[in-house]
Specification:
The chain has 7 helices and 26 strands. By secondary structure, it is an alpha+beta fold. The protein folds into 3 domains: 118 residues, DNA Polymerase III, Chain A, domain 2 (Roll), CATH 3.10.150; 144 residues, DNA Polymerase III, Chain A, domain 2 (Roll), CATH 3.10.150.10; 115 residues, DNA Polymerase III, Chain A, domain 2 (Roll). Strand 24 and strand 25 form a beta hairpin. Helix 4 runs antiparallel to helix 5. The longest helix has 12 residues.
């Protein structure tokens, strides 16, 4: 293998693919990046692949002159350090010699010892999974959606997924396709976020399919988004999900593969309150700012902000108190209020988290009672259930 590659493009690709490299593992190949140089119709392409056995990422670098096709397998941290350190170079030359790779700039030469490329575990090809060829299990569902809209669905739900390993069944986001409807849901047991979108070019009566996608994979997917209009092909099997950035015939620059979270997602429809009798409309930024300010005088023991909604004055008063710290009181006007006055406590972080993922400036909140969950809505495609906290 011998290639001359644009250094900045190579560094961007290595930084992305390093997210799929295993940390501590007895399998040294999982701490490596596989590099494949190929030529097709005269055009050169460099492909980088990494996997930690749970998540795999395949990236293509197009700004490359492939003088000799081939492949190599070298430690990801070393090539990342070298390419990053050679910041004064416009291009770098990569040349394999046995299991080693020589990296050359104008005034530097690095020889990085690697491993046989054949020792790298196989990573599924998107096309092979869609067709069920090359020994791959055929995808039970394939859909396409613009990258920007898909990223919005992830952003509006991922923040509510559990982070504790003990709640592993929730440590991911439910992806559900039913006909032309795509839905994503996440919960950590104290809050639940749900976002929806309509799929284009999908059969109206397409068979329903759902899976739980790990949070790590979705965080990586967000980093791969470059153009909002770029199509993302999604293929789902019983055990894996694949995201291909590009067309179905040629997945293009990136393919992300992830194992699915095992288990059954809780019946989230039962958690969404249906009988709220108090409706508040407010400016997203105004209330977000007020909650942040009221939260300044809270601590781990008093992790709650008291929210007093007054219908007559169309006003929201926020208060917090922490022993040996002090008190905070903030008042803001509401755009609208329908129902009796209510005083209720919420974890301020849970409120701010939801408001910052919304694009619409006006938000609705529905309430029932002090000990009942609140419901935040934005348009018809986002809702967020948040449990109240007890305030002394």
């Amino acid at each position: 293998m011998k290639v001359i590659v644009d250094r900045a493009s190579l560094l961007d690709a290595i930084n992305l693919v390093s997210g799929a490299v295993a940390g501590r593992t007895p399998k040294v190949q999982l701490q490596c990046v596989k590099i494949i140089a190929s030529k097709s119709q005269g055009a050169g392409e460099l492909t980088l692949i990494a996997t930690d056995a749970e998540v795999s990422l395949r990236l293509s670098v197009s700004k490359v002159d492939v003088q000799q096709p081939g492949e190599a397998l070298i430690p990801c941290d070393k090539i990342r350090q070298i390419v990053s350190a050679e910041e004064g170079e416009a291009t770098l030359t990569l040349e394999s010699e046995g299991d080693a790779v020589h990296i050359r700039g104008n005034d530097a030469h690095f020889k990085v010892l690697g491993y046989p490329p054949a020792d790298f575990p196989p990573v599924p090809e998107f096309g092979a999974v869609v067709s069920g060829s090359d020994g791959n299990t055929k995808a039970k569902a394939v859909l396409s959606h613009p990258a920007g809209s898909l990223a919005q669905l992830v952003t509006r739900t991922l923040f509510a997924a559990a982070r504790e390993a003990s709640r592993y069944a929730f440590n991911g986001v439910l992806l559900k396709r039913d006909g032309k409807r795509l839905e994503m849901v996440a919960t950590d047991g104290r809050r639940l976020a749900l976002a929806r979108a309509n799929l284009s070019g999908t059969e109206k009566d397409a068979k329903a399919v759902s899976c739980i996608v790990p949070s790590k994979a979705l965080n990586m997917m967000l980093k791969l988004v470059q153009e909002n209009d770029e199509p993302v092909q999604v293929a789902i099997t019983d055990a894996q999900i694949l995201f291909a950035f590009g067309t179905a015939a040629s997945p293009g620059r990136a393919v992300l593969v992830s194992n699915l979270v095992e288990g059954v997602f809780p019946p989230y429809e039962d958690v969404i309150p249906k009988d709220q009798d108090k409706r508040v409309t407010f400016d997203r930024d105004v209330v977000s700012s007020a909650v942040k300010r009221a939260a300044l005088l809270t601590n781990e023991e008093s992790r709650g902000v008291r929210m007093h909604f007054r219908g007559k004055d169309r006003q929201l008063e926020l208060a917090s108190r922490a022993p040996e710290m002090g008190e905070a009181n903030v008042k803001v006007d509401l755009a609208g209020y329908d129902g009796e006055d209510i005083e209720i406590g919420f974890n301020p972080l849970f409120i701010v988290d939801a408001l910052k993922v919304l694009d619409e400036p006006q938000v609705m909140m529905e309430l029932k009672a002090t000990n009942k969950p609140g419901l935040i809505k934005s348009g018809t495609d986002f809702l967020y259930v948040v449990m109240p906290v007890n305030l002394q």
